[in-house]
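Following up on my earlier message about protoporphyrin IX containing FE. Here are the inputs again, as you asked, copied directly from the submission form:
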Amino acid sequence: MLATLPYILSFLVIATTYWIYRWRNPPCRGKLPPGSMGLPLIGESIQFSIPSRSADMPRFVKTRMEKYGPIFKTSLAGRSVIISTDPEFNNFLFQQEEKCVEFWMMDAYSKLINHTGSSKDGGTSSLGGEYHRYYRRLFLDHLGSEAMFFEFSAKYLFSYDPEKCKVKLWEKFSEVMQALVSFPVRIPGTPFYRAFKIHREIIDFLMNTIKERREVPEEMRKGDCIDQVLEHMKTDPRITDEFIAIVFFGFLLGGTESAASAFTFGMVMLQQNPVVLEQLQRNGQSELTWNEYRSMGYTMQVINEILRTAGPVAAILRRTIKEVNFKGYTIPEDWVILITANGTHLSPEHYEDPLVFNPSRWKDSLTNKNFMPFGGGIRKCPGAELTKAIFAVLLHLLVTKYRWSVKGGEIVRTSLLLGFGEGYRMTVSARS
Ligand code: HEM
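Thanks, got it. Here's what our run produced:
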């Protein structure tokens, strides 16, 4: 036995060295983008999750962009990942939906919401591409241009009343969001475990709401989204209560947090830039009508600038379903690509003085190829126009009817989200 020990040890050393080598140099038929795969197994997950307390792009992205350029590799939560801040590559990827890349959620997120959109997994066990199609149809058919942010959306979807309902949905959603990039292990005490339990509570709450509504006589229903869904259910047996609960969960999680945090960020920026605020006030003297909205040149410039600087959706995730070749790099199949518009919107290469809040930079055109706050291609945010309309109305009301001052707070960015630490405290009072 003793005689074989040196052989066993040598074998272990060689196998471990080879494993580490393979970890650092993943197999690829061409040239992978530069970058570091970090430590075996955990990769660079820890560095990725460290928040930055500034309005600038997340530190994780900034330091790597400076070192490696706009496209780089890393490893996060057990996955091989390419991060792209290159607008050309991002626009290329938006056009490659379902050809070379597909929608992807971090493993923790898919496990949390019991949803895998991946064709590799055969679509989701129960939902898959159907989830996406139903989701979009329901959104565009029903929400039209009236819904707003979290509680407004919840009210519109299923007549949720935050004042009367004992379940404080918003607080629960915030907790779930904090666990979106975590290792998907269901061990008590971990953020994932807690988020998993809260997610189940929310789904049960939503399923219960659907069940209760079913018992209400048709003539007494509220005409909200649930009522429409109950009609669909009569003719389509695939639409179950759980399916709808998951769709609503997706709506609330996907849109409302981004819009609310971008708007909060905008209020802070306006307070810090009195010249912009004054110009908005001058523009907003008349009553707001549809024609007025369409011609709100400066307001639209302010909205663009809020979306550019706030960048509430810091990551759009895709998985390669085929090898992707771009600008001399090869990205193998089954890698995750994290598209971060912040890396473009806050880069001096694409915007002069990117941290300066300057709506006038949009005076000649409100669009350009380096501006993608709502993503692009077939997955582009269906709430984009709605968000801009709501922002326009809210800004108009705020600057004409109210004054506000920021009492304290800080901007906290992670590589995925825009947040405000303990919250931003503001006082808002009506103008006399
Ligand atoms: C500042 C506000 C918002 C920003 C920056 C934003 C951004 C985005 C982005 C980048 C995507 C694409 C994700 C991807 O390609 O994987 C997306 C998708 C989506 N957004 Fe928004 N969004 C905002 C507001 C909203 C609002 C208010 C709603 C609804 C009330 C909404 C509903 C959705 C939905 C349902 C999707 C999924 C679309 C799909 O899967 O095809 N968004 N959003």
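One observation from looking it over: The first helix runs from residue 5 to 24. Hope that helps, and feel free to reply on this thread.
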